[in-house]
Amino acid sequence: MSVQYVGLHEINGSLIFLDDVDNVGFEETVEIRVDDGTTRLGRVVQIEGKKAVIQVFEGTNGISLKNTRTKLTGKPMEMPLSKEILGRVFNGAGKPIDGLGDIYTDKRSDINGQPLNPVSRVYPRNYINTGISSIDALMTLIRGQKLPIFSGSGMPHNELAVQIVKQARLSGAEDSKFGIVFAAMGVKNDIADYFRRSFEEAGVMERVVMFLNLSNDPIIERTLTPRCALTAAEYLAYEHDMHILVILTDITSYCEALREFSSSKGEIPGRKGYPGYLYSDLASLYERAGIIHGAKGSVTQIPILTMPNDDITHPIPDLTGYITEGQIVLDRNLNQMGVYPPVGVLPSLSRLMKDGIGEGYTRKDHSDVSNQLFACYAKVQDARSLASVIGEDELSDVDKEYMEFGKLFEEHFLSQGFNTNRTIEETLDLGWDLLSVMPRKELDRVDDEVLDKFYDHDRAVERFELKEATIIPELASKGK
């Protein structure tokens, strides 16, 4: 028998307080009937003895202390699920907003997910091709990985997210089992329209599930959005054997909502005002990525976050970096130079990349070309630092070669345009052409056997229309 409680003890922001409550559970869903006859939803967020604190999803405007009727449902918040969610658009709380009606439900699942035995996890292998050279070659996204993008205010992370959704593919026949769950939190209406329009125009909407939480929606809905998205992803992955890529943007908006909510509960703030449990809260999202033993599907995550003041030591990117398996960092200097996507190569990495590339996955030479590109670009930065002190004319001949390589690398490899989709073979071939600009003896991260097969200085000169006068013949000869 369900019990209704009439009246409230207190209202504070989006929270209401009930006294003398029995048999209440944490995260339990609550139905709140207000004076005008409408019903709102909430969830129990705190229990102190017989006092329950309830967070109201739609806000507390118009709620009375005396006549409000509160009903405890006895279960956590659940999301209706079926294969029909593909191609649909939902709000942050998992309700359809595309005008196509309700979902015919196969099952309902707790949005907080189920506890996962770490022993049942399978080590991630196989890669997801994004069509973006800098990511595919240098910080490869592995199926089942969590690989965040660290961006900043005004950077093109929204465009990058759209490009990944449009271009992401699996290799071979498995691509038919590939889907994307896209969740946007705290975005403006024009950005939300941009996401929807871009996916529809690209013809990929039938394999995308969208969750849109707008900036004028309640903050409580923002804290639910990633959990609803991950619940949908887990259902498609483990019930329908699909490989799901989850893109969450912007995690910073989620954390700001969490901070505001924590403050309204009167909790003691931690670093920069964020709650002390921010680490465990983010981990409860990120750790829902992976591959489970016996399951044919997988969940891969790309959380996108904007670093306040481009500060990578800020609590949000700092804690995210501890939990996830690498990061893709967008560089503001490259962005100002007109390079798109402005991926900063040196601070970026993918910790699982080594086990998902090479023969049988991408191509046998992938690791060699990746290591050598990293090494050469690191020396480019050293040469540029030296040139800023003594002038470019005073550099050694080899340092000038690195300066030339850096320009070509940024112009042809990093910068590829919003609509350019490169296969992994095209990306690796381009990498070898760029490396072939350098004197062969400078390529010290690659075996001679591999160099004999891929190094071709003449082809590089022709491809990039280089003047031979800028290349030192005795250094560039294949025999050196």
TrEMBL record:
Keyword Ion transport: yes
Sequence ranges assigned to domain ATP synthase A/B type C-terminal in this UniProt record: 355-455
Boundaries of every ATPase F1/V1/A1 complex alpha/beta subunit nucleotide-binding domain copy: 131-350
Segments forming domain ATPase F1/V1/A1 complex alpha/beta subunit N-terminal: 10-67
A Pfam entry, by short name: ATP-synt_ab_N
Cited function: Produces ATP from ADP in the presence of a proton gradient across the membrane. The V-type beta chain is a regulatory subunit.
Family: Belongs to the ATPase alpha/beta chains family.
Designated name of the protein: V-type ATP synthase beta chain
Species the sequence originates in: Copranaerobaculum intestinale
